[in-house]
């Protein structure tokens, strides 16, 4: 992912203070800080991200202007109005980033919940190493943001990582519902789960829910990801229930409740998603567990699944040149 960081600034939110503590100057982007900020932005483009396109009149977008520092102050105050309603608030740093992705300007807002961390000091007088606790440490560069939005300022497309807040005993997706006032698309991760769950539920109602069908679902999703195409419920229905029109229609109806349209893979970490689906993991009733790569799972010359007359299964693994014992 070709991200070019132009500017960044950090503000501080403490629930014990009536106002946000605003930085007056931009962050100094030393090599270490540049790497940290870049990784934080990269984490927004994950399979957990919800996506959509903001309207030109969107209230959140109205705060994102060309004047970067005042824009971050406006967005932070707009965010605070909703977030302060949440129960059990913690200290957060608010990271704002002006960057380019694929040569197009982007704006990111990243909420970083501060954590307790531990370090050590060496007490020369006692010859002892002592553990010291810090209550205001930023999360590491490799961890995902607690909450974040990245907006393409040309297309107005956005990627959103959000967490619900609890208010008056109820949970709210306050960021998309109140700040954006938009209903984003389901994330790729949740879309895959919804497709697998729906397909297996429909198959079960037609007595076709054995392990082979579950693997068939994963196989169909894997090939869609491998092609970096999209998840199209219509196409998947034809693949999974080719011989059963009633089941095919039932799958289409049920999956549309969560996935109204096809799910595209634009600006998604395809290598990560493909890796998650690349292996078929089988747990057998006798305690044996197997991991079979997709490419071999479909090769009858390597693995063969046999259904016996008594209803049990046999798995035949062929042409093995070497076996190693892994401890």
From TrEMBL:
<dbReference type="GO" id="GO:0009295">
    <property type="term" value="C:nucleoid"/>
</dbReference>
<protein>
    <recommendedName>
        <fullName>Nucleoid-associated bacterial family protein</fullName>
    </recommendedName>
</protein>
<dbReference type="InterPro" id="IPR007358">
    <property type="entry name" value="Nucleoid_associated_NdpA"/>
</dbReference>
<dbReference type="Pfam" id="PF04245">
    <property type="entry name" value="NA37"/>
</dbReference>
